[in-house]
User: Fold this.
Amino acid sequence: MDNLVIKQSSSSPAISADWNTGVISMKGDSYPENSFELFQPLIDWVEAFLAQGNRPLQLDLELVYLNTSSIRSMMDIFDQMEVAHKKGQTVNACWTYEAANERVGQLAEEFREDCTFPFTIDVKS
Assistant:
């Protein structure tokens, strides 16, 4: 499988997924017209990566705003990570956000509550 790179637009985040390191990075706003179209390549990439079952996956998020359909797509990714974690695979997530953006901080907390894998939240001041 190859690396995945999706360029940032005014309504979608920059997404990169490195097959060799197992690191996924997402930065920016996410309110695309069709979130399924945006996120499906990433969901497929995560599925293929986790199917190997022997490599750690790190998800680094710096998302500023997510619309409802983007939240659903993120839930799909977290669900895949949760299944892998329960099978003993090393997965973790880190969500970094600006202290002034309390709303995204609350969203990150809600996601973390549903996950049993390591999930850190970092606040930038």
Summary: The two ends are 37 Å apart (CA to CA). Residues 15 and 69 are 17 Å apart (CA to CA). The first strand starts at residue 4 and ends at 6.
